Recover the amino acids of this structure.
């Protein structure tokens, strides 16, 4: 069994049917679409309205990322819309 330098290295896990992986820039559109759901907006502390910039910002600044150097990026959660900060 190999050692994992968590959280610097985020592995991709799969069983052939389900795959778990780090967020990628290509996921922004799906995150944006999911966050348009009124139930999601009511249940999870996300900005309303949830804009495409929020999805990109989540991936770039908050979500763990397996970037070129396997780095992890973290920032504060959104508290205001980007245009009001």
């Amino acid at each position: 069994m190999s050692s994992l330098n968590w959280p610097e290295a985020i592995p991709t896990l799969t069983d052939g049917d389900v795959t778990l992986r780090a967020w990628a820039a290509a996921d922004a559109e799906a995150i944006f679409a999911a966050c348009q759901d009124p139930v999601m907006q009511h249940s999870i502390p996300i900005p309303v309205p949830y804009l495409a910039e929020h999805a990109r910002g989540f991936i770039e600044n908050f979500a763990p990322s397996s970037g070129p150097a396997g780095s992890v990026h973290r920032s504060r959660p959104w508290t205001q819309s980007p245009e009001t900060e």
In short: The mean pLDDT is 77. The chain has three helices and two strands. The CA atoms of residues 19 and 73 lie 21 Å apart. Residues 24-84 form one domain.
